[in-house]
Amino acid sequence: MSHVPAPDRAELRARYPDVFDRPASARLKTPVMALVALAVFVFGLVDLDFSPSRFVSGLRELGWITLLMLPPDPGSSFPLYLKALGETLSIALLGTTLAAVLALPVSLLAARNVVPEILRFPVRRVLDSIRGIDTLIWALVWINVVGLGPFAGVLAIAVSDFGAFGKLFSEAIEAADQREVEGIRASGGSGLHEIRFGLMPQVLPVIAGQVLYFIESNTRSATIIGIVGAGGIGLQLAEQIRVLEWQRVSFLIVMILIAVAAIDWISGKLRFAIIGRRAVA
Amino acid sequence: MTSAVSILPRQQLAALNDTYRTAVARKRLRFALGAALFIAALGVAAIGAEVNLRTFFAHFDNFVSYFDRILKLDDGTRVWTNIGEWLWGWKKWLKLLGETLLISYVGTLIGAVFAFALNFFAAENTSPQKWLCFVTRRLLEFARTVPSIVFALIFVIAFGLGPIAGVLAIAIHSSGALGKLFSEVVENADMKPVEGVRSTGASWVSCMRFAVLPQVITGYASYALLRLEINVREASVMGFVGAGGIGQELVVAIRKFYYSDVSAILLTIILTVFVIDIGTGWLRGRLFGRDART
Fold first, then answer.
1. CATH classification number, B84-190+216-293, choose in 1.10.3720.10, 1.10.645.10, 3.30.70.60, 3.40.50.970
2. H, E, C per residue of chain B
């Protein structure tokens, strides 16, 4: 039977000084970082007026509201809410499609393997700036331009997703296999041929998956832009919250949950059909 | 030079060509059907969303000129010719931006703590009971499907106007989103260390602490930092419904057509988002090496 010899601590210590005597800076790093994070947290609580009494009374109020929400009841406005939900779904679908169509050519200008760095950099920064502004802000801007209503919502979603898609698509293009492009070039294809036959077949399935995912997540975004007046179910929701009709509020929330789950399911099926099992997971 | 490609006899070639053509035709038909269906859906959606191309084109120059207008001061000069006049409210705005950052930080941290507490129950491989897994998952789903601004609207009524509502709204939404991501990390973890720890007679809590946590903690931190970036953006609009931060000032400026203020506030928001993105990217790089930066 083999026998493990007793470790010679002195020798081990001499051989691996870092393990036995970690410098104070390395040992203190984690606790100091945790302490700083906690200090900022406590400062935040104080600065944002988190008093326990206010918190508790708020929670009590919230409990009341939750009780008042049960059972969900649309009153007589169910057809109106259904129409608003349809509006929301339309906003999501149109906005995302518009954004994808506009973003595809621009994303080529933001991909390292298609254009030189000097063009890529400014395009990227513009896309970053567009993404830095929330959809709700875009909705407010578009309301100034085309007036209140769902159309402003479509344009708001289109613009803010344009920024996100530009970045995502260009990353997909950069990740594409360069050898297929070289093959097209070797057979005498022009620059456009390289993009059409070398890049696009590789990136289109990825892009289709991302677009479907965004339609799904935009169903959620489209529910909120109504709050600033850009149409859809959010408008109804904000109104009912303001007039404290809690049963209707909970009914609207349930409607949103069901719609999102349904879209989730459909887009999962579609993604499966378009890009196969692997990409779904 | 003679061609090295051998050509099949004609009948064989014709048969193969036929099969190829029918296969391609079927594929094209399916694609055309899908495209037609999609375009029909778009058409229905366009009616539903009251798309009006005439207003769009009639007012599109309005959209372009909006950016022209927000870059002009009241006296008609460009904003960058008189920075002091443009950024006249910088003290107030910086304070509100600080509040926005604090809202997102505190909200993310609370959300991450809740997500951390719940994610082991939501992950299939570590959940102690099947029904517990189901219940936690539905709970997280609810928290992340209801948009944070809807929570904010409700919390503003319960907790009163102010940043508390914003913090709690962001916390709940983040706990839902992070809980899902965290539990996915746990599901991808290697289960062999858990077996090892369990074989020493350890309880469930010790299994999680000593076998799972060391594998997943970097994933948690990385996702939490990403969430912080998203939440800074969300917190910037919490003020729209009275839940604190810079949004209040922005919505007033947009609604009352204080053009130069709109551009000034947008500029500060974009810069803050940039700084936070770069900062968290740097932090991720420091914490987990270069791979995790993207």
1. 1.10.3720.10
2. CCCCCCCCCHHHHHHHHHHHHHHHHHHHHHHHHHHHHHHHHHHHHHHHCCCCHHHHHHHHHHHHHHHHHHCECCCCCEHHHCHHHHCCCHHHHHHHHHHHHHHHHHHHHHHHHHHHHHHHHHCCCCCCCHHHHHHHHHHHHHHHHCCHHHHHHHHHHHHCCCHHHHHHHHHHHHHHHHHHHHHHHHHCCCCHHHHHHHHCCCCHHHHHHHHHHHHHHHHHHHHHHHHHHHHHHHHHHHHHHCCCCCHHHHHHHHHCCCHHHHHHHHHHHHHHHHHHHHHHHHHHHHHHCHHHHC
